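From the pipeline queue, job 12 of 40. The input is one protein chain; the requested action is below.

Action: predict structure.
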Amino acid sequence: MGMGTSTFLIRWINFLTMLLAVAIVCFGVWMSTHHDGCRKSLTLPVLALGGFILLISLIGYLGAYKDISILLWIYLAVLGLILVGLLVFTVLAFIVTNNGSGHTVAGLRYKEYQLQDYSSWFIKHLNNTQNWKHLKSCLVHSKDCNDLPKKYKNLKQLKMAKLTPIEAGCCRPPAECGYPAKNASFYDLSFGPISTAIDCKLYKNIRAVKCYNCDSCKAGVAQYMKSEWRVVAIFNVILFVVLPIIYLVGCCARRNAAERSSSKV
């Protein structure tokens, strides 16, 4: 690669990532303005991510722009650590999300989920009292269950619906309970459960209770997290293809900067 080409590419790559970092920081600031505690809890991680990307991009940009070899050394060292971290996280993500799938229910288009089907990591973290207390608070204030009556006006629409894992696990009692549905958010609990499953006793029609304390709800969250983690893992695989190329270009730019510095001496 030509002496000027690698330096030019590193400048523009880091200039674009700086713009991305600014956008992430602005998104974090926007999240901090919401009264929703769940979104606010993500503010610091988002701001930290944006700040980290901005700092590393600035180091890479200045190193290439000013031909400062030590800055490019730092940039490459951090980029190498990121590559190792991506590899470890991606492998763990695929391992953790390898287990768990939904169970079909006769007469329904959506699936139900059981917590024991998922990895021990998911089970441990979802059964942690503090973790679940926070997650449950987010679920109660979300629109997942509250909007079901608006989305499905009658029982036929509800039975034909493809509910999300959270809607299926947290907003309604498991099908094995046998509670007749009156509408999308109300079940006849006087009918009595035909199953001894603890989730059948935990479900209540109360908006703030529903099945948020049920294992079926935790399983729905596990399925949702599994899907999200898989998307992130696939994105990481793409990054793991792109970042080594950037790393090699950065190596060329560092070498060129060192040669320019030595030629000035």
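Job complete. The beta strands are 103-104, 111-112, 181-183, 186-187.
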